[in-house]
Amino acid sequence: MLAHLPSSAPDLVVDGRPDTTPDVIDGVAYARLYGEPLFRMPTDLYIPPDALEVFLEAFEGPLDLLLYLIRKQNFNILDIPMAQVTKQYLQYVDQIRLHNLELAAEYLLMAAMLIEIKSRMLLPVRKADTGEEASDPRAELVRRLLEYEQMKLASQQIDALPQLGRDYVRTQIYIEQNTVTRWPEVEVVDLQAAWADLLKRAKLTAHHMISREELSVREHMTAILRRLQSSKFVEFADLFDPTRGVPVVVVNFVALLELAKETLIEITQAEPFAPIYVRLAYAPS
Predict the structure, then answer these.
(1) Which of these, 42, 46, 72, 44, lies nearest to 57 by C-alpha position?
(2) pLDDT tens, 235-255?
(3) How far is CA 116 from the centre of its chain?
(4) What is the tens place of the pLDDT at every residue in 3-48?
(5) Rounded CA separation 248/232 (Å)
(6) Which long-range contacts (CB under 8 A, 24 or more apart) does 135-144 make?
(7) What mean pLDDT value characterizes the chain?
């Protein structure tokens, strides 16, 4: 509930002039003080000097500040304008000395180095005793800045990687385990399939006994010649006995080819698709 002051209440006097601030501004108080609505701004309000202080940039050290000043103004890090950079650096150090003297001590050491480099660059360049040109006073500072920049970029890339607790949360699931053993149910079809698999594997691992039979081509050649001596012509198929097995038939055929090669027999055929006949190529004595 907003309290309305009576219209007959006397006006307050501020700095010798009557206070024209209305008792209620659009029906809303400025604030509440100890639960009571406040319709007028207090005249004795004290605001500390650093209450509204805003830090626009935060640096992790002197090298970070120096690198920021160089990169912000697009200076060549290999050819640093020491006068401008040193001036801007000292202005920043003067600001932090007003608030944090312990923090400023670290920055003052870098400031002394910058001033030393700046003074050395103002001196005439002298050649070394070896006749070589003197090194650039900024060389060591440039090396440290480049190394720091590489480490800073590497840390930013590492920080961009997903991190546990910041970017994602590890999921944990608790499963209650039952100590009662539950055996699977086996059907008749499962037993039949298992038995068929065992038979299949048993056939794959069966041992085969191979017997060796010695067959002589010369003996079969002699047998063929004896057979042809008693007959003038013998049909090709009659020279083979399939009942004796494939090895004997093969050796007998090889013997027949050897005899033809040695021109001991002649193999003739009256016309295409006619029966093939074999006879001796010489007259038997």
Answers:
(1) 72
(2) 888 888 888 888 888 988 999
(3) 48
(4) 333 333 344 444 455 555 445 444 567 677 777 787 777 777 666 6
(5) 24
(6) 138/80, 138/82, 141/80, 141/113, 141/114, 141/117, 142/77, 142/78, 142/80, 144/63
(7) 77
Whole-number percent of the chain with pLDDT over 70: 78
Interval 187-206 mean pLDDT: 84
pLDDT computed for residue 147 by the predictor: 92
Cβ 281 vs Cβ 263: under 8 Å: yes
Structure-token match 């057979």, residue found: 227
Write out pLDDT tens, residues 116-141: 888 888 877 766 556 566 677 888 88
Structure token pair of residue 126:
């002298």
Instruction: Enter the tokens of residue 154.
Output: 């590497």
Sequence-distant (≥ 6) Cβ neighbours of residue 145 within 8 angstroms: 63, 66, 67, 70, 77
Nearest in space to 29 (alpha carbons), one of 17, 20, 41? 41
The whole-number pLDDT of residue 56 equals 44
Q: Is the pLDDT of residue 99 over 80?
A: no
